[in-house]
Amino acid sequence: MSDDLPSPSPAVTLETTTFWDATREGRLVLPRCDECEFVIWYPRRFCPACGSRRVSWFDASGTGTVYTYTIVAKGAGAYRDAGPYVVAFVELDEGPRLMTNIVDSPESVFVGQRVGVAFTPTEDGTALPRFRTI
């Protein structure tokens, strides 16, 4: 079942520290450009839309819709014995599309489905933002 997916600890970098620290608290945060208000994904210290280095973080709603997905029958590495499971792009209500897992039954997932974040703890204390039906 998808709730039993492996939960590898992420590689935390200078650009992603704020994001992963928030997951420890069960919060989904996103960077936003202070100049053009573009919501940035993947976290970085500059705006890919206008080039500004004025970027700040905000609490995201944690909700969105399934943009696209696939059901993986046989994974690799830590996911080798986890299938079937869903890998999806969730379009967050704030705009960015986040690659993630949907932890509901794979057969119940569909494009356009409303989902909300469900954090899965990792060994290092961070949490992986995965999604389930709301």
Please tell me about this protein's structure.
The strands form two sheets. A five-stranded antiparallel beta sheet has the order 5-4-3-6-7. The longest helix has 8 residues, at 17-24. The chain is mostly beta strands. The chain has one domain: OB fold (Dihydrolipoamide Acetyltransferase, E2P) (Beta Barrel). Strand 4 (85-92) and strand 5 form a beta hairpin. It has one helix and seven strands, in the order H-E-E-E-E-E-E-E.
Please supply descriptive tags for the structure shown above:
134 residues; mainly beta; OB fold (Dihydrolipoamide Acetyltransferase, E2P); 5-stranded antiparallel β-sheet; two-stranded antiparallel sheet; 1 helix; 37% strand; globular
Protein topology:
Elements: H1 17-24, E1 29-33, E2 55-59, E3 63-72, E4 85-92, E5 97-102, E6 114-121, E7 127-133
Antiparallel strand pairs: 1-2, 3-4, 3-6, 4-5, 6-7
Q: What's the total helix number?
A: 1
- By secondary-structure content and strand pairing, the structural class works out as mainly beta
Helix content: under 10%
CATH class: Mainly Beta
What proportion strand? Answer: 35-45%
Radius of gyration: 15 Å
Total of domains:
1
Overall 3D shape: globular
The assembly state of the depicted protein chains is single chain
Count of individual beta strands: 7
Q: Which residues form runs of ≥5 with pLDDT under 50?
A: none
Q: What is the makeup of the main sheet?
A: 5 strands, antiparallel
Q: Kindly state the mean pLDDT as a whole number?
A: 95
CATH architecture: Beta Barrel
The CATH topology assignment is: OB fold (Dihydrolipoamide Acetyltransferase, E2P)
The order of strands across the largest sheet is 5-4-3-6-7
Task: Give the helices and strands as they follow along the chain.
Answer: HEEEEEEE
* Through-space gap between termini: 18 Å
